[in-house]
Death domain-containing protein (Capitella teleta), 417 residues
Amino acid sequence: MCQLQLVGEVVYVETEAEEDLVVLHPQWLCSEVIGQLLSHDLLSTARPTGCFSADDFQLLFPDSDVKDLLCLLEALELCTRCDVEGEVEYEFPCLNFIETLHGLWERDDTRLPQGLYGGVRLQCPAGVINQLVHLFPRIQAHLRCDLLENNNGPDCDLYQWYHGTKFCKGSMEALVTLEQKEQVLEVKVRGSEACRAALYYFLEEISDVVSDVLEDACPGIALEKHVLSPNQLKAHKKAPLAYSPKDLLSTQNDRKDSCRLNDSEPAEKLTDLLFCGAAEIGKTITLGIDLHISHMSVHLRRKLSSLLDPPDCMGKDWCLLAVGLGLTEDLPKLDQTHPQSVSRTDGILALWSRETSSNIRSLLLKLRELGRQDAVDAVLMMAPLYHVFPEDQDGGDSEDLQKETTPHSSDNTIASR
């Protein structure tokens, strides 16, 4: 079956039901089903909500078994089953053309007189083709399925419109939208001052759904995570400014506890930016600057390799970095065990990662001593901002926990924020 799928003879789709589905005629699926769904004729006549009952869908495809067809499209993440006023309907986010709903994110909300705000902005690095606009309907399908499946209480609700989603959970609210001419994706949350930790986990829950969809649809996609200014969010600025990863990691490296967007804006605490100022969360967090280098992503290691592998006329390349890291005696071994096709920079980092003291702060120091500001900037833009370690039940500190969970190889990357 796998071989037939690889050569394009069939389409094999795993489902949550007891039986998986096999499409024997891929052209029928791609042309007659998906092609018709996204055709101009259907887009111009379909209801703007993008919701269809099973009977409505049967009229669109009279020659198909509507139950199996909807199951197939749901498995392909083109739609999701939902309850609309007591009736089962299927929501197709790619057909949702409702205009932006007004009144869902007002500044003068009586429920939140002293509201707490937070948020992140996800965007592709400069020079990378933006894929977010094409993946947003899939994100909306997952938000409908995952959030309501895990939060199905009476105080939970979800609204969706063209390029926007709002999710309510008790007194907390979240907004997921495409902004800046569909070039960035923003996740904003707000709640009461008394629920800082809950609001942090709320933001993480929604951000994880978005990140999982992007990683599943585009494996290896590189995204920059900027942190939106809580002050600007609370003031309901139309285009809130955000702190780049470089801003936040530079603040950590300088051992400061606050940073500011510019001279005209007030300083904001690093704890408020990273984890909504929740003291109990701060006890379990290790700042990105103090993380072991094994927490660096594959994208960052590739970037460093592309910068430091080519020979430098002044010798400021991987070889001098190895000397600065105290690996002079390992250079002959590296030449013997690593073929020319393998990155020397990544090999050096793999050897250095065996030491528990090999953290991102130390790497930045060595790169600055080497005079490679381009590599320093790459680390500051692409290194994780922090990592949450579980609290030690025996009372051990977070440093001991980090050493226990740190792999001694740069090939193993732990998910960090």
Observations:
- The radius of gyration is 25 Å.
- The chain has 18 helices and 16 strands.
